[in-house]
């Protein structure tokens, strides 16, 4: 489903962001760090991209339906190893929203932490992301490319009431989640494509205590890249080839979720 396709983008990003949890530890459900924009009733936007429930399935979706849908799309084994299915709707909408912001708190990722670390190479004048780092993302990209997107988006539509309610619950009672999803996708599609090694650096750490896993603290050396949203930096870390492949899927998703109230 579309939910899994976007949510699992964090699966690999989390490898660098989880600095204190053990590799096999599951994050606790937490309240997402979100500050809703203030808006008066007069300035509240109308719905741009409505989602209609499939006419052949009038029953209201329930939380267990999410896990079943994930298993149908990715396989039960992948779901058990990759996803946080408890409170998935809340985790997903918080993650999508935060991917469009400067920071995406790891406590709300809808995926499990995994082993691995950022590949770094030393070059003259500093450090860069290693040339082979993109290979770590290839299994995930292949998984995404294997998903039947029309079927995934149809499932997203069936489960949409769960996501809309979760979006309202985390602090956006008068906003429409699918509109936010499209806005985040547009932002991701605007991510620059950099075909040269990306320079990175460790921020200066003052004090006697040094981190045990310093690779989780790497930042882009270029201020313009470091100022990008959390989601855009995910795409950059994937490498230019994987970034283009992911953008192709994101464009397909955008067409499907903006198809005038799909499905019919």
Helix content: 40-55%
Overall morphology: globular
Class derived from helix and strand content: mainly alpha
Assembly classification:
single chain
- Radius of gyration equals 19 Å
Question: Major beta sheet, specifics?
Answer: 4 strands, antiparallel
Strand content: under 5%
Question: Counting H and I runs of at least 4 residues, what is the number of helices?
Answer: 11
Sheet with most strands: strand arrangement: 1-2-3-4
- Cα distance, first to last residue? 17 Å
Number of domains: 1
Order of helices and strands: HHHHHEEHHHEEHHH
What's the rounded overall pLDDT mean?
Answer: 80
Q: Ranges with pLDDT <50 over ≥5 residues? A: 1-42
Fold and architecture overview:
- The protein starts with a helix and ends in a 7-residue tail after the last helix.
- It has helices at 2-7, 10-17, 63-74, 76-82, 88-99, 138-145, 149-169, 177-189, 223-226, 230-238, 240-257, and strands at residues 120-123, 126-129, 199-201, 219-220.
- The longest helix has 21 residues, at 149-169.
- A hairpin with a 2-residue loop joins strand 1 and strand 2.
- It has one domain (2-29, 48-116, 134-195, 231-257).
- Strands 1-2-3-4 form a four-stranded antiparallel β-sheet.
- The protein has 264 residues and is mostly helical.
- It is globular and about 60 Å long.
């Amino acid at each position: 489903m579309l939910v899994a396709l976007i949510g699992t983008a964090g699966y690999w990003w989390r490898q660098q962001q989880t600095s204190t949890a053990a590799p096999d530890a599951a994050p606790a459900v937490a309240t997402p760090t979100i500050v809703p924009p203030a808006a008066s009733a007069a300035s509240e936007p109308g719905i741009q991209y409505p989602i209609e429930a499939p006419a052949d399935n009038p029953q209201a979706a329930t939380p267990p339906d999410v896990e079943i849908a994930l298993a149908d799309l990715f396989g039960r084994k992948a779901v058990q190893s990759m996803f946080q299915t408890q409170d998935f709707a809340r985790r997903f909408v918080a993650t999508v929203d935060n991917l469009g912001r400067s920071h995406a708190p790891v406590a709300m990722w809808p995926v499990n932490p995994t082993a691995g670390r950022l590949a770094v190479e030393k070059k003259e004048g500093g450090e860069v992301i290693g040339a082979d780092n993109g290979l770590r993302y290839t299994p995930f990209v292949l998984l995404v490319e294997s998903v039947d997107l029309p079927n995934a988006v149809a499932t997203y539509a069936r489960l949409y009431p769960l996501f809309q309610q979760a979006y309202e619950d985390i602090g956006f009672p008068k906003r429409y989640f699918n509109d936010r999803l499209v806005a985040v996708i547009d932002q991701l599609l605007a991510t620059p494509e950099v075909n040269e090694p990306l320079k990175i650096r460790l921020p200066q750490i003052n004090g006697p205590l040094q981190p045990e896993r310093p690779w989780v603290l790497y930042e882009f050396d270029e201020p313009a890249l470091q100022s990008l949203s959390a989601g855009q930096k995910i795409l950059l870390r994937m490498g230019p080839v994987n970034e283009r492949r992911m953008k192709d899927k994101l464009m397909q998703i955008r067409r499907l979720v903006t198809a005038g109230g799909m499905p019919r």
